[in-house]
Amino acid sequence: VTAGPGPAAVAAWPDPKALWYLDRAAGLVLLVLLTVAVALGQASVRYGGRPGRDRRLPRFLAVDLHRNAALLGLSLLAVHVGTAVADDFVDITVVDAVLPFGSPYRPVWLSAGTLALDLLVAVAVTTALRRRLGPAGWRVVHRSGLAAWALAVGHGLGTGSDIRRPWVLALVFGCVAVVGAATVLRLQSAPGLSRGLRAAACLLVLTAPLVTAGWLRAGPLQADWGHPAGTPAPAGGHR
Ligand code: HEM
Questions:
Q1: How far, in Å, is the centroid of ligand 1 from the Cα of 81?
Q2: Residue 130 CB: number of other CB atoms within 10 A?
């Protein structure tokens, strides 16, 4: 017979770090959902079955899964922000979640997440108002979803406490590979771009993961990254 948890363990429940763990888990799942939404959005331009175009991507992927992954991502973003604000290990307010550079906690990397949130809200609002805006205005804002995704990756790598775990690193680079491939494919069907510009953009997309890997080695993968990232003293042991 195994003994149950002792009185000390029972007294320590719920774990005071539960919100913090939930926040980090929500961040990772959120990144995967955003990746699915962004990659399918890009693929749907080329393969999404617009009249007279290639229809290799079925509608449930091109439209339904794209939209549902984005909506689920927004709901999870609320959980991610809510738990970050409610958790008292770090000093982050609701205002810091929408206005960059307010929180003292890893300000540059947290602000990348804040800007990603602002862009995603703009994408969601303009999609809801799409009929009033017209396709041209909607498209301009909708394309910033890719920038939001890139900012979110920078945020996750720069501030994430789990980034030194191999499976987390593999997950993030998996997301980068999926969106990178979708972006290269998307660039092939960008009519306004000259061949030279298209090749330069593809080169940029392909070299970005290498540059990121170099930066990770010199920065976030180092044991003392919390200090240069801007971790205030009370939260120092939290990573
Ligand atoms: C689209 C927007 C966002 C995405 C995709 C995202 C994603 C992530 C990811 C992947 C992580 C790393 C989790 C880990 O290492 O286990 C993370 C960490 C975190 N994010 Fe976000 N995030 C976003 C926006 C925000 C915003 C607006 C806030 C502001 C409240 C925020 C606060 C945090 C905090 C406090 C952490 C934990 C930092 C740490 O581990 O020290 N995120 N996020």
A1: 8
A2: 14
84 Cβ inside 6 Å of ligand 1: yes
Residue 119 token pair? 């862009």
For residue 114, how many other CB atoms are within 10 A of its CB? Answer: 23
| 37 CB near ligand 1 (under 6 Å) | no
Q: Measured from the CB, is residue 145 less than 6 Å from ligand 1?
A: no
pLDDT band with cut points at 50, 70 and 90 for residue 61: confident
Cα of 1 from ligand 1 centre, angstroms: 42
pTM: 0.92
Whose C-alpha lies nearest to ligand 1, atom 37? 160
Radius of gyration from C-alpha coordinates of the chain: 20
Q: Are 83 and 19 in contact (CB under 8 A)?
A: yes
Task: Convert the pLDDT of each residue in 130-158 to its tens digit.
Answer: 999 999 999 999 999 999 999 999 999 99
> Alpha-carbon distance 187 to 172, whole Å?
22
Q: Average pLDDT, stretch 158-173?
A: 96
∠ CA 95-99-103, nearest 5°, is: 70
Tokens matching residue 120: 């995603």
Q: Tell me which residue of 206, 37, 56, 58 sits closest to 116, measured CA to CA.
A: 37
Instruction: Write down how long the chain is.
Output: 239
In contact, 187 and 143? CB cutoff 8 Å: no
Mutual angle of helices 166-188 and 144-159, in 10-degree steps? 160
Going from the Cα of 144 to the center of ligand 1, the distance in angstroms, rounded, reads 19
